[in-house]
């Protein structure tokens, strides 16, 4: 179903048709569908923002909010930045959107503790986006995966949004981490990934053959 | 230097205002009086110009590409310099009798005529001229696009590129002109009101997409990338160089247009069949090459794909370096090339501050020189103003696709799109502001307890840990690896200084670069040989 929709939308957005406001209603429904069914299509969403940019009268802030929240769920990719570039300053300053901006800024700077606190204050903001919190946790997992070899349990719990032991266990299993039993969790071996590189100069014969030939 | 750049906005959008100087005013009157032919009646065309126009038409119709190129790139600019340095070329009405009312030729002539007015006439084009020029482009593209069989016309690549580039430029110029409501007279506002489609974004997009479709350029590029013969998919129109190249240049035009409107995803996406990482046989026009890489690099920078931005800028800056002697002559094309090159050095500096990595030695050497080195140092120190200045200097002139309504307060709305995108960029910079400091500390050690380094940096450990996470996150970007699409790629960490945390301990990995002697000696040997050669030719 979702795949069918994706292909249908993609063929609808060929060439100049991308800027046809008649497509807007369908695209907006597609945005809502993405939120409900936990699927994601950046390109379609950007074309919605583009149509709002071309026709400010069509602008619907609840749709924009959904698009931004969905973009956030695709971190570490920079979809959110791409969306932000298509919104004018006064739109970004509207209360609803600016709340989303604050959340995105916290995620981008990896202030996960504050993020979860702030999110708790936002009430029903994310209710309409299926799987939002777990998508954010996946981003947290990504950052943890590239940063830590072993991590203290309380630190990890806090990053994931003060999850309880039960939930933590699930994530440990899902991410193939290992509970070391000493209050630490083994994430992955980083020694091979993060190594000091020595770049030395290599002079190939071909590089100097010309010059040497000249000197004879 | 930055202040000067902003004056560009002024320059492009200034409308004629009485100067108070009667002589100048009379002169200005002449330009604004476009369309009312009688004013030109007393003016008689020099014979050399008459002859030139007749010859020019003959060549265009003969299809002798080499000759057309010579006229376009040499004779026309030369005559412009001699006879029309700051006044327009003869009006099309006067030219018409000389060329038997040859309409297609007159359209091409007018394309040059208006382009000259945009570039050289003080005060810029009047609103009527903007309209006329727009209308002329519509005629030109209609002529080419609505023909039942391919139009018989061959023009040099350089000219075709400049038609598309100028078309987008004039749209940009109008969008900025349109936004400075504070400088409009009542007549101008009325003119805008009754011509709502004038330089409308949809029409501009439509032209470019139509040229892309008509030429099957995407299919051709796809076939070409696969090593197949593009002609098999080109179709009747796309096989003709005129259509093929207009299609190709339209892709670059779209890249530019999408960038100006802040859609960096679509900007890179339109080039998805173009092999940017290989030399293609399509791109023999240097200005087009350079422009392509400038906008692609810029889009990457905005998308936080720094490694890709650095690769893109490096690639083209090396190309410019190699071909530099070609751009020494003072022509309008070279002016633009040199300006864009300068901007790319600044963008390269910005990218390198945000994402330090090794680049080609000869580019590094330039960045070690004066204005660059100082700018880089200030950005590394975290001076936000310096980032902002660099962005203002080197970014394209962003536009709003929808101009403010004519009834809007007569204010200057031209800077709004720029401010909007500058804010996005500066937000990003702000998020990364502590990273250079942390990097410089990390660099000093191979292992270090988290708590201890937090103390060095005089911040609570929890806060420091957050910065470390942010460091890792921001240094891991999508990087292009293979395929034609510039959007594809995989997450990579290309940072020179890298680390991981094991419990309470940071393990740091640095990149150590041994000095490169080979390059240095090779360069010296070349220099020495060059001197020797010159000396030998000297007679004492």
The top-level CATH class of the domain at 285-431 in chain B is Mainly Alpha
**What is the top-level CATH class of the domain at 1-124 in chain A?**
Mainly Alpha
Strand arrangement, largest sheet of chain A?
Answer: 1-3-2
Fraction in helix of chain B = 55-70%
How much strand content do the residues of chain A show? 5-15%
Mean pLDDT of chain B comes to 82
Oligomeric description of these chains: heterodimer
Per the principal axes of the C-alpha atoms, what is the gross shape of chain A? flat
Q: Using only CA atoms, what is the Rg of chain A?
A: 23 Å
Percent helix of chain A: 55-70%
Write out the CATH superfamily name of the domain at 1-124 in chain A: ARM repeat, domain 1
SS-derived structural category of chain A: mainly alpha
Tell me what the structure shows.
The complex is a heterodimer of chains A (216) and B (540). By secondary structure, chain A is mostly helical. Chain A has a domain at 1-124: Serine Threonine Protein Phosphatase 5, Tetratricopeptide repeat, CATH 1.25.40.250. Chain A is 60% helix and 6% strand. Chain A contains 12 helices and 4 strands. A 3-stranded antiparallel sheet of chain A has the order 1-3-2. In chain A, a hairpin with a 4-residue loop joins strand 2 and strand 3 (184-186). In chain A, helix 2 runs antiparallel to helix 3, helix 2 (24-37) crosses helix 4 (61-73) and helix 4 (61-73) runs parallel beside helix 9. The longest helix of chain A is centred in the middle third of the chain and has 16 residues, at 132-147. Chain A is flat and about 75 Å long. Chain A starts with a helix and ends with a helix. The model of chain A has no long low-confidence stretch (mean pLDDT 87). Chain B is mainly α. Among the domains of chain B are: 285-431, Serine Threonine Protein Phosphatase 5, Tetratricopeptide repeat (Alpha Horseshoe), CATH 1.25.40; 445-539, no CATH class. Helix content of chain B is 64%, strand content 4%. Chain B has 26 helices and 6 strands. Chain B has helices at residues 2-13, 22-32, 38-41, 47-62, 65-83, 92-95, 103-120, 127-145, 157-179, 186-194, 201-215, 217-225, 231-238, 241-260, 264-269, 286-302, 306-323, 332-354, 361-367, 370-380, 384-394, 416-431, 435-442, 450-456, 461-475, 518-537, and strands spanning 447-449, 476-479, 490-493, 498-502, 505-509, 511-513. In chain B, helix 16 (286-302) runs antiparallel to helix 17 (306-323). The longest helix of chain B is centred in the N-terminal third of the chain and has 23 residues, at 157-179. Mean pLDDT of chain B is 82; it is low at 1-41. Chains A and B meet through helix 3, helix 5, helix 9, strand 1 and strand 4 of A and helix 11, helix 15, helix 22, helix 25 and strand 4 of B. Strand 4 of chain A pairs parallel with strand 6 of chain B.
């Amino acid at each position: 179903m979702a795949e069918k929709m994706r292909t249908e939308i993609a063929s609808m957005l060929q060439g100049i048709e991308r800027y046809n406001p008649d497509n807007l209603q369908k695209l907006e429904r597609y945005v809502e569908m993405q939120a409900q069914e936990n699927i994601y299509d950046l390109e379609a969403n950007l074309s919605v923002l583009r149509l709002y940019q071309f026709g400010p009268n069509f602008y619907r802030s609840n749709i924009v909010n959904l698009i931004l929240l969905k973009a956030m769920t695709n971190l570490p990719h920079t979809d959110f930045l791409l969306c932000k570039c298509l919104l004018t300053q006064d739109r970004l300053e509207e209360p609803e959107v600016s709340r989303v901006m604050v959340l995105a800024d916290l995620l981008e700077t990896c202030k996960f503790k504050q993020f979860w606190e702030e999110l708790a204050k936002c009430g029903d903001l994310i209710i309409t986006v299926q799987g939002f919190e777990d998508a954010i946790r996946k981003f947290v997992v990504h950052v943890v995966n590239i940063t830590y070899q072993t991590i203290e349990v309380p630190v990890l719990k806090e990053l994931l949004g003060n999850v309880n032991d039960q939930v933590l266990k699930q994530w440990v299993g899902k991410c193939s981490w290992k509970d070391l039993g000493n209050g630490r969790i083994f994430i992955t071996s980083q020694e091979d990934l993060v190594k000091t590189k020595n770049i030395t100069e290599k002079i190939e014969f071909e590089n100097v053959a010309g010059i040497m030939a000249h000197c004879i | 230097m930055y202040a000067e750049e902003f004056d560009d906005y002024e320059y492009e959008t200034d409308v004629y205002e009485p100067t108070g100087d009667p002589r100048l005013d009379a002169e200005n009157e002449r330009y604004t009086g476009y369309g009312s032919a009688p004013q030109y009646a007393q003016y008689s065309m020099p014979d050399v110009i008459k002859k030139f126009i007749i010859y020019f038409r003959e060549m265009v119709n003969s299809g002798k590409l080499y000759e057309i190129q010579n006229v376009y790139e040499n004779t026309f600019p030369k005559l412009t310099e001699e006879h029309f340095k700051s006044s327009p070329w003869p009006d099309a009405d006067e030219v018409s009798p000389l060329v038997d009312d040859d309409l297609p030729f007159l359209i091409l002539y007018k394309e040059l005529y208006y382009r000259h007015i945009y570039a050289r006439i003080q005060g810029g084009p009047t609103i009527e001229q903007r309209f006329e020029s727009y209308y002329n482009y519509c005629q030109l593209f209609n002529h080419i696009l609505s023909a039942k069989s391919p139009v018989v016309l061959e023009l040099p690549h350089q000219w075709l590129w400049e038609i598309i580039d100028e078309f987008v430029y004039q749209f940009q110029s109008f969008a900025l002109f349109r936004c400075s409501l504070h400088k409009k007279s009542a007549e101008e506002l009325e003119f805008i009101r009754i011509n709502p489609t004038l330089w409308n974004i949809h029409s501009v997009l439509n032209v470019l997409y139509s040229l892309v479709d008509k030429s099957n350029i995407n299919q051709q590029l796809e076939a070409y990338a696969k090593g197949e013969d593009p002609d098999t998919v080109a179709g009747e129109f796309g096989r003709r160089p005129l259509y093929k190249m207009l299609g190709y240049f339209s892709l670059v035009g779209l890249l530019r247009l999408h960038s100006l409107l802040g859609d960096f995803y679509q900007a890179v996406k339109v080039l998805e069949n173009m092999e940017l990482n290989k030399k293609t046989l399509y791109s023999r026009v240097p200005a087009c090459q350079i422009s392509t890489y400038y906008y692609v690099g810029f889009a990457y920078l905005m998308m936080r794909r720094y490694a890709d931005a650095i690769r893109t800028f490096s690639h083209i800056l090396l190309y410019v370096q190699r071909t530099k002697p070609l751009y020494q002559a003072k022509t309008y094309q070279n002016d633009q090339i040199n300006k864009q090159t300068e901007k790319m050095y600044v963008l390269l500096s910005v990218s390198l501050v945000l994402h330090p990595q090794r680049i080609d030695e000869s580019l590094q050497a330039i960045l070690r020189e004066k204005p660059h080195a100082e700018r880089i140092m200030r950005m590394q120190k975290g001076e936000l103003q310096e980032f902002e200045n660099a962005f203002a200097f080197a970014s394209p002139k962003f536009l709003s696709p929808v101009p403010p309504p004519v009834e809007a307060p007569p204010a200057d709305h031209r800077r709004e799109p720029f401010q909007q995108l500058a804010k996005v960029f500066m937000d990003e910079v702000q998020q990364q502001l502590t990273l250079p400091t942390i990097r410089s500390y990390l660099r000093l050690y191979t292992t270090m307890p988290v708590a201890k380094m937090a103390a060095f940096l005089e911040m609570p450990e929890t806060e420091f840990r957050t910065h470390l996470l942010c460091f890792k996150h921001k240094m891991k970007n999508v990087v292009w690896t293979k395929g034609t699409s510039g959007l594809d790629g995989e997450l990579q960490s290309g940072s020179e200084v890298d680390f991981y945390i094991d419990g309470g301990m940071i393990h740091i990995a640095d990149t150590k670069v041994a000095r490169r002697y080979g390059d240095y000696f090779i360069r010296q040997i070349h220099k020495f040989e060059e001197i020797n050669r010159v000396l030998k030719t000297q007679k004492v």
